[in-house]
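Recall the central idea of this unit: under ordinary conditions, the amino acid sequence of a chain determines the structure it adopts. In this exercise we apply that idea directly, starting from the sequence alone.
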Amino acid sequence: MTVRATLIGFTAILMWALLALFTAASGKMPPFQLSALCFAIGSLPGLGVLLLRPERLALLRQPAKVWIVGIAGLFGYHFLYFTALRNAPAVEAGLIAYLWPLLIVVGSALLPGERLAWHHVVGALAGLAGTALIVARKGVDFDSAYALGYGAALACAFTWSGYSLMTRRFEAVSTDVVTGFCLATSVLSLLCHLALEQTVWPQGPSEWLAVLGLGLLPVGAAFYAWDFGVKNGNIQLLGVASYSAPVLSTLMLVLFGFAEPSLAIGLACLLVTGGAVLASKDVILKRSAAPEAAQ
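Accordingly, the structure predicted from this sequence is:
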C-alpha cells in the first residue's frame, strides 16, 4: 500500500506542475475569484461520488478538529500565498513559500512510526537548491519594506507543511472529506473576492478551458491524491519529490512558449532529481533487496 499510495501522492505533484501554465492561460481573473471558481469545480468529482454512493455521506461526519485542519490548510495556504504576492516581490515570496517540502521532511520525524535519516535532509536541501535556481533565476533582493509579504510567505510554508503532517495523523479519515474542504475554501475565497477584488471574467473559450483545467487538476484532483498519499504513503519521499513541482512547472511553461529554456533550468532538474533519488534510497534498496531475498 505504501508504494501505491506514494505514487498516487506523486500524481498531485505532477498536477501542481500544471498550475502556472493553466494560470497563465486563464486570463486576468483576480486570485480570490479564481480560487473560488476553481475550488468549486474541484469539489465536483467528490460531489459526483457522493451522489452515486450516498452512503458515503456518513464519512463526512468528522470531529471539528478534522474540519479545522482541512479548511485552514487549503484556504489558509491560498490566503497567505496571495497575501504574500500582494505585499512582496513574487520571486522572494515564492522562494520563502517553497520551504514547505523541507518542513515536511524535517517535521515527519515527529510522526509515529517515522524516522528522519541524513539522506532525507540532504535530498530535501538539494531539492530546495534546485527550486531556488528556478524561483530566483532572475535574482533575489530581500527588502525589509516587504516584511509583511515575507512573513505571509513563511506562514504559508508552515501552513501547508503543518496541514500535510497533521493529515497523516488523521489516516483513518476518508479522503471523501476533501470535498467538504474544497467547498468551504470556495465559499471563503468568494467572500474574500467580494470584499477585496473587482470581478473579471475569462475572455473566450481558451481561458474558460484553462480555468476548468485548474479546477479539475491542480486545484481539484491534486488535493484528493495528496490527502491519500500523505496518509498512506512515504511522506518523507513525497516531501522531497514536491520540489519537482516548480521545475516541472517551468518546463511546461518552456514547452508551451511562456518561458525561455536556460542552463539554470537544466541544473535545477539535476538537483531536484538527484535529491529525490537520494531521499528514496530506503525504498529503492528495499525493492532491490526483495528479489534477492526470494532467491
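DSSP finds 15 helices and no strands in the chain.
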